[in-house]
Amino acid sequence: IRMENITQISREDLEELREAFNRIDIDNSGYVSDFELQELFREASFSLPGYRVREIVETFIAGDTNKDEKISFEEFVSIYQELKSKEFSESFRKIIARKDGIRSFGGMSGISSEGTQHSYSDEEKVAFVNWINKALDKDPDCSHLLPMNPQNDSLFKSVRDGILLCKMVNLSQNDTIDERVINTKKMSTFTMTENLVLALNSASAIGCTVVNIDASDLMAGKPHLVLGLLWQIIKTGLLADIEIGRNEALIGLLGEGEDLDHLLSISPEELLLRWVNTHLTNAGTQTIRNFSEDIKDSRAYFYLLDQISPKGEREDELAVIIDMSGLRERDLNQRAELMLKQAARMECRQFVSPHDVTSGNSKLNLAFVANLYHMHPSLPNNNVDPDMHIEAESREEKTFRNWMNSLGVAPYVHHLYRDLRDSMVIFQLFEKMNVSVDWKKVNPSPYPVLGANMKKLENCNYAVELGKEAAQFSLVGVGGVNLNEGSSLHTLALLWQLMRRYTVMVLSDLGEGQKIGDQIILNWVNTTLTQGRKNTQITSFNV
Ligand SMILES: *[C@@H]1O[C@H](CO)[C@@H](O)[C@H](O)[C@H]1NC(C)=O
Ligand SMILES: *[C@@H]1O[C@H](CO)[C@@H](O)[C@H](O)[C@H]1NC(C)=O
Ligand SMILES: *[C@@H]1O[C@H](CO)[C@@H](O)[C@H](O)[C@H]1NC(C)=O
Ligand SMILES: *[C@@H]1O[C@H](CO)[C@@H](O)[C@H](O)[C@H]1NC(C)=O
Ligand SMILES: *[C@@H]1O[C@H](CO)[C@@H](O)[C@H](O)[C@H]1NC(C)=O
Ligand SMILES: *[C@@H]1O[C@H](CO)[C@@H](O)[C@H](O)[C@H]1NC(C)=O
């Protein structure tokens, strides 16, 4: 870039360009990626013929002398000059402004259609930063990063060395990561990448879906990916003890005349809703159906807080009497603020701002409630039969479940056996290991009310057929009916072989086709198992 190019632009223009550039350069790296620029061009093409845009982008990429696919401010200015046609630069600026608008007003997240432009929610960023600041406050390994400023983009810079993510995974599920394997000193790109890979692998081990994200995305601090991963990690931790297998006191939520099987089959989110509604019913007020529309007026929250606040019954606890006068406040934002002040007295002002309540942000409100549950469960113990005992999830079951969830199967598998009863997830697993599934033979959900189980059973029969014929698994004595009944023995027999096939496939890919024997995998599984539960070992895959 020659200097005379730049001096042709007026000082005002230059300042404006600098501002625009800084807005695209979300992480303040001093560069924007060429793909980001291309997206902007693509969007602007209505005012400039398509061939012109392609030409410009190609010229630019060809001329990107250092081929780093990054565009510095100076390069940006020269592109702008090439495009000085008034019409074009105006629409270009409009798009830059819009991009910024999405970011500062929030309300959107995830991948937009076509994946051309990624937006993210500012509310989520603020909520997660506050949460992490508190959660890792005392961890000396994070003192160089914390506290982060929730108002700027320091989160996206702070995740780069991987330490913060590793710590958050470990916090979500105790002891997932060994202290000694995180690099904390002599940080270089290499050690940072190691940490990030460790964080991704561990996140996947606790059931987060990480198929669309790699260490370089995190290193680059791509906001939508960082927030997406953090949400999964935080949510896993928040919902961890809302599962009957892990917390038998939840049986107290059993409705009258309801059988335990039903309670076992519902997701943690639904259980949480039921927990809220149990308390609302006890308070004699209306129940809620979700964490968006129905909580906007703070009414449910006031009553919930009042029900669960400490009553000073134990010697070591101070009673917190909830001030309900906020219910009379007309302005919903102020009412939400008064409610959150009460939550703060219980040390539970987390995740939501008054605006997140009144706008019904379901993600953040779920987190707020999950944390309330975590801090003040106050479960009723009316229905608990002392003889009722629920088998806790075993280490192997959890390993299978996390494995399939990390591959991004849908719907998310909460219960290994119950959630596989229609074999939909099994079909997805087959596809992931190149066993082709004839979807014409599969009955899709939702199933008809009448005969639903017949449809599911047909699916299971087909899954077993695929396993025996297409995948050549050894499935002696396993029938569709066994999977449909949720028989652990038979389901595990199939899952072992699926996971083995998958692991061999991945390992061979890594080892450039080198054959990976059962022995290597068995050793790995053996080690994994013995770390957890001493009495489980496997000697072979033969079933
Ligand atoms: C964010 O603000 C803090 C001050 O609160 C500052 O130290 C930090 O450098 C800022 N980070 C970014 C990425 O702007
Ligand atoms: C994790 O560890 C903390 C402190 O060591 C403990 O309070 C908490 O109950 C543990 N959580 C689980 C799920 O084991
Ligand atoms: C992970 O959590 C456990 C307690 O739950 C703690 O003892 C251990 O030090 C943590 N590991 C790291 C790397 O912070
Ligand atoms: C929440 O429930 C209300 C009815 O109370 C409904 O109108 C709304 O669509 C629901 N929202 C979601 C996200 O399910
Ligand atoms: C699976 O199929 C995909 C696409 O059909 C192919 O690229 C890949 O190499 C296959 N993998 C194996 C292990 O056969
Ligand atoms: C797994 O470990 C047990 C006990 O340590 C051992 O007897 C068994 O042979 C091991 N299995 C394999 C496949 O290495």
Question: Brief overview, please?
Answer:
The chain has about 550 residues and is an all-alpha fold.
Describe this structure in words.
With 543 residues, the protein is mainly α. It is built from 24 helices and 2 strands. It has helices at 3-7, 11-24, 34-44, 50-63, 73-82, 86-105, 122-135, 154-158, 163-172, 189-205, 215-219, 223-239, 260-264, 268-282, 299-308, 332-345, 354-358, 362-375, 395-406, 424-432, 452-470, 480-485, 488-510, 518-532, and strands spanning 31-33, 70-72. Helix 3 (34-44) runs antiparallel to helix 4 and helix 9 runs parallel beside helix 10. It is globular, with a radius of gyration of 27 Å. The structure holds 2-acetamido-2-deoxy-beta-D-glucopyranose (6 copies). One 2-acetamido-2-deoxy-beta-D-glucopyranose (NAG) binds next to loops.
